[in-house]
Amino acid sequence: MNLFKKKKPELLTDFVQEPPLPWTNRVVIPAAGIIASGWTLDNKVFLLSADGYSVSDPTSGLREIRNYDEDDIAMSKFSNDNLEFTIDELKQTIKVFGLRGGNGNHTTSDQWSLDSFTPSLGEQIVGIQNFKTSKNNSIYWKQFTLISLIRLEYTTMTYGFSPNEKHVGIFGSAGAEIFTRNE
After folding, report:
1. What is the mean pLDDT of the chain?
2. Is 13 helix (H, G, I), strand (E, B) or coil?
3. Which of 23, 39, 46, 80 is the most exposed, having the fewest neighbouring CB atoms within 10 Å of its CB?
């Protein structure tokens, strides 16, 4: 037995998997160059890029609004602190994350929680757990189910629960992956 043999490091990407029940419905909303994202007041998915913005249904991914920003005014719809965006078509001002700050809601009223982990520079993995059913582990990330992604790369992302807490959104420059409770 070699006491000096180094243990092979664990790669967090080896542990990614589908989220636990009840988060079974996955919808991928493809996009490019996303700089801000969030939820509308009625729990729709908001994505903003240099080419305009869209609002999509979180359970089907169907786009309900597509504004190509032909007048080049979308950036003026941000609040001064870049944490809110006004969607004229909906007559709503929503909280957004991305750009220069802000982030989503990371905990629900029934104790679901999101967190992210950076196994190496430039990498990010999002995990989900329920405080009621999770088991304590001295290695913090092992308390979470690390969520596998289809379209998004494991790089800089924002994430959060929708206002009604029925959807989890993971947002990156290539769009969004939305998981909906199947209850």
Report:
1. 92
2. helix
3. 80
